[in-house]
């Protein structure tokens, strides 16, 4: 349920607007002056804020400035009984979404709410897409070895379903790319793809990161926050390195998968979710289960479909095509005319021990592009593929 904040010094206006919004099934909060309204908007997340212009102590224009300074992104709809064209224009210039004159008209209010909600959704989608484009520009699952062809085939079969997938493999093999491909080929492709690196988040914060928290749930919880499960609503949640998740978080994830509901940290209300979960790990979860570090029931919930990504050393025949792909990408990123590999350079790349897998290969290609001439030779690969051999 979307939460709306009403900032107005007139109790009658607050009551009338509350009745309209609650009848339309919105959760409503009130503030009787601008200062109190700013404090609430900063400490809690609201879908929309209605704000009067003429108020004592802090008027609506000052509220707009304060919300902007505090980086509050909620759409603000200004309301006034003394409005003029100049006032409306000034409010819009300061960042207000719309301006409504009193007495309030029901249809105008509902249309404005719908438009504000649509814009907020588009802004959030644009942020996600921008991050996605920046991170995944020019990437795809590249390779023609039997192992990679099998993975591509499995992705095509599994992606249209909502089946949970567990992706296994060493660090740097491309597990995240498999998860992204599953999302891009699914019916959820137009919704968010949210990633959580379970190994990078401290154990005491992972539950807040996944499930969100209510204001005051712990010392630093100064405002309500949605977790990744909610942010991925309708889309895909990628739980990377899930083998590093704490036992407490594992129990909550299990409940979320079983019942499709979550509870924010410090909250008591069940929140229904519609999120597809794809997980990945570089650990042997069977061994983790035997040693009591991972829940077997959670494993079975996650591993409906298993996809194992081979190491680069297990698919050396794909190294030339991967190297050419990264060469083109790196040259474009650095604004450098495209360079070339000599045949012996590709042979040297195939003979290298890739302990860091595809991630290491990409880094080495970037190093070669920056340090070598127009044609990258085998001796260049042997010199620069090991950082210890680099000379000043």
Q: Would you write up a description of this structure?
A:
- By secondary structure, the chain is of the alpha/beta class.
- It has three domains: 3-122, Rossmann fold (3-Layer(aba) Sandwich), CATH 3.40.50; 138-308, Rossmann fold (3-Layer(aba) Sandwich), CATH 3.40.50.300; 312-389, Helicase, Ruva Protein, domain 3 (Orthogonal Bundle).
- Helices cover 46% and strands 15% of the residues.
- It is built from 16 helices and 16 strands.
- It has helices at 11-23, 34-43, 60-69, 85-93, 106-136, 146-158, 175-184, 203-211, 228-231, 247-259, 285-290, 296-302, 319-334, 343-351, 357-371, 378-384, and strands spanning 3-7, 27-31, 48-52, 76-80, 98-101, 165-168, 193-197, 212-213, 225-226, 236-240, 261-262, 271-272, 276-281, 305-308, 340-341, 375-376.
- It is elongated and about 80 Å long.
- InterPro entries: AAA+_ATPase, AAA_lid_NorR, CheY-like_superfamily, P-loop_NTPase, Sig_transdc_resp-reg_receiver, Sigma_54_int, Sigma_54_int_dom_ATP-bd_2.
């Amino acid at each position: 349920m979307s939460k709306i904040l009403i900032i107005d010094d007139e109790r009658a206006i607050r009551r009338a607007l509350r009745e309209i919004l609650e009848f339309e099934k919105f959760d409503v909060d009130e503030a009787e002056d601008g200062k109190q309204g700013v404090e609430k908007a900063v400490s809690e997340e609201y879908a929309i804020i209605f704000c009067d212009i003429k108020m004592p102590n802090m008027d609506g224009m000052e509220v707009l400035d304060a919300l902007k300074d505090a980086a509050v992104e909620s759409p603000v709809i200004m309301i006034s009984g003394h409005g003029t064209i100049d006032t409306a224009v000034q409010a819009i210039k300061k960042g207000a979404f719309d301006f409504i004159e009193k007495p309030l008209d029901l249809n105008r209010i509902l249309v404005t709410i719908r438009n504000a909600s649509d814009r907020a959704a588009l802004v959030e989608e644009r942020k996600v897409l921008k991050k996605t484009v920046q991170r995944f520009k020019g990437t795809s699952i590249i390779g023609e070895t039997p192992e990679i062809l099998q993975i591509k085939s499995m992705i095509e079969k599994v992606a249209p379903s909502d089946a949970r997938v567990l992706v296994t493999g060493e660090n740097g093999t491309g597990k995240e790319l498999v998860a992204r491909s599953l999302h891009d080929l699914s019916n959820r492709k137009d919704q968010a793809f949210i990633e959580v690196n379970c190994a990078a988040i401290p154990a005491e914060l992972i539950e807040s990161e996944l499930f969100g928290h209510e204001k005051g749930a712990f010392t630093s919880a100064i405002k309500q926050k949605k977790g990744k499960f909610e942010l991925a609503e309708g889309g895909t949640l990628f739980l990377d390195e899930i083998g590093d998740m704490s036992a407490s978080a594992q129990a909550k994830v299990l409940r979320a998968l079983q019942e499709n509901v979550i509870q924010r940290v410090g909250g008591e209300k069940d929140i229904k979710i519609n999120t597809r979960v794809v997980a990945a790990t570089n650990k042997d979860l069977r061994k983790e289960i035997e040693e009591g570090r991972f829940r077997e029931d959670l494993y079975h919930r996650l591993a409906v479909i298993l996809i194992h990504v081979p190491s680069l050393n297990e698919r050396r025949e794909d190294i030339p095509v991967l190297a050419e792909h990264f060469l083109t990408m790196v040259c474009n990123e650095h604004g450098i005319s495209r360079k070339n590999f000599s045949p012996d350079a590709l042979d040297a790349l195939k003979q290298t021990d890739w302990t860091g897998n595809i991630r290491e290969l990409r880094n080495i290609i970037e190093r070669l592009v920056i340090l070598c001439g127009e044609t990258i030779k085998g001796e260049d690969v042997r010199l620069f593929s090991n950082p210890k051999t680099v000379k000043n």
